[in-house]
Design brief:
CATH architecture of the domain at 114-379: 4-Layer Sandwich
Structural class: alpha/beta
Oligomer: single chain
Helix content: 10-25%
Strand content: 15-25%
CATH topology of the domain at 114-379: Metallo-beta-lactamase, Chain A
Shape: globular
Length: about 400
């Protein structure tokens, strides 16, 4: 018996030690802030020194999310609706339709317009003010440090090697489905500026990005770069690449980007709060609004908009055209994979709002005669959608 206990103790120590070793050595995890970067973080008005973490406007909104929706409040429903026992069609049963068109030769020509291609989830290739940027680009096969988890539905519609010369990479926060090490490494030798929230730079530095190429922003910071104005705006979310071990050491953000002629808003990941209205009052109206519309659940509505909140937020922002994002490439919630777009289009139609629903890879030019279809309808199968 003593030998068994000793063996179990040694095995436990070895497993814990192995896990700690992995977490500290795995390059995918990035790095935590230190030195002058940490000093800069600690004087941010959005950093709570007592907690040693960044906080939202309501500091406990994430900690308290899910209250009233815990397991014991409705155990049968919780068992039925979780990641292991779920009768929803959380992944498509076939390949999602794509537009595998060559990138237009005049894609950079955007002096009086905005051009973009939604690449699935929150990844966007966009041209504004004759500058090209990638927003939250994920080209890896999974959105996780473990290659077998959070697999993408299908390969990228555009290969990394086929991406044209870009000027900027814009990042909203450091979660794996928004900040991809392989993509960052691909561009690190190129003439690209990395526009990121405060505290994200240590990840990029660990992955070999020249510090002179990185520009960090706190909420409400604004800077003119290459003829464009970048404004880092609030979001209601959290951050971290180490799970619950070291959360919120870097900031999460939404972004306003302006050229002399046009502007757009990118929500990043966010739950609904007063920031949408404040941003809309200060910087709206917006030509395009890329809005977090998927991976929601009542239990974590603090960090992802529910469908009705997508519309409320869009209206608060004074948006002209809504583009739902954060869906159609990774499964990170319990709803049907198509629910975000079904709900967004239904509500947009109800309120008479302009919504753009491009296929993955489709090139869209603001003001041009773009054709949008409800392409997802014919792919719904297995489990019928309510209000299809």
């Amino acid at each position: 018996m003593i030998h068994n206990k000793f063996f179990i103790a040694i095995l436990t120590i070895a497993l814990v030690g192995g896990l700690v070793s992995f977490l500290t050595s795995c390059e995918q995890l990035g790095s935590l802030p230190s030195g002058t970067i940490k000093e800069k973080i600690e004087v941010s008005p959005n950093f709570d020194r007592n907690r040693s973490e960044f906080v939202n406007r309501r500091p406990d909104v994430v900690r308290n999310m899910g209250e009233g929706h815990g397991f014991w409040s409705d155990p049968l429903r919780r068992i039925q609706h979780n990641f292991f026992f779920n009768d929803n069609e959380t992944k498509p049963l076939s390949i999602l339709p794509e537009d595998k068109q060559p990138i237009p030769q005049d894609f950079r020509n955007s002096n009086q317009t905005i051009k973009f291609s939604w690449l699935g989830h929150s990844s966007i290739l966009l041209s504004i003010g004759n500058k090209i940027m990638l927003i939250d680009p994920i080209f890896s096969s999974s959105a996780s440090p473990f290659s077998g988890l959070v697999k993408r539905y299908q390969p990228p519609v555009i290969a990394l090697e086929d991406i044209p010369e870009i000027d900027f990479i814009l990042i909203s926060h450091d979660h794996y489905d928004h900040l991809d090490m392989a993509t960052i490494k691909h561009f690190r030798t190129k003439d690209v500026k990395y526009i990121v929230p405060l505290g994200v730079s240590p990840h990029l530095l660990r992955w070999g990005v020249d510090p002179n190429k990185i520009i960090e922003f706190d909420w409400w910071d604004a800077q003119k770069i290459g003829g464009l104005t970048f404004i880092c705006t609030p979001a209601q979310h959290f951050s971290g690449r180490l799970g619950p071990l070291k959360n919120n050491k870097s900031l999460w953000a939404s972004w306003v980007v302006k050229s002399p002629s046009n502007n757009f808003y990118f929500s990043g990941d966010s739950g609904y709060d007063t920031h949408y209205k404040k941003i809309g009052e200060k910087y709206g109206p917006f030509d395009l609004v890329f809005m977090d519309s998927g991976q929601y659940n009542i239990r974590w509505k603090a960090v992802h908009n529910m469908p009705d909140e997508v519309i409320r937020g869009f209206q608060d922002l004074r948006g002209k055209n809504l583009i739902p994002i954060h869906w159609a490439m990774f499964t990170l919630s319990l709803h049907n994979w198509y629910d975000p777009i079904v709900e967004s289009t239904k509500l947009a139609d109800k309120f008479g709002l302009s919504i753009m629903t491009p296929r993955i890879g489709q090139f869209v030019e603001m003001g041009a005669p773009n054709i949008f279809e409800k392409w997802w309808i014919r792919l719904i199968g297995g489990v019928s959608a309510q209000n299809r």
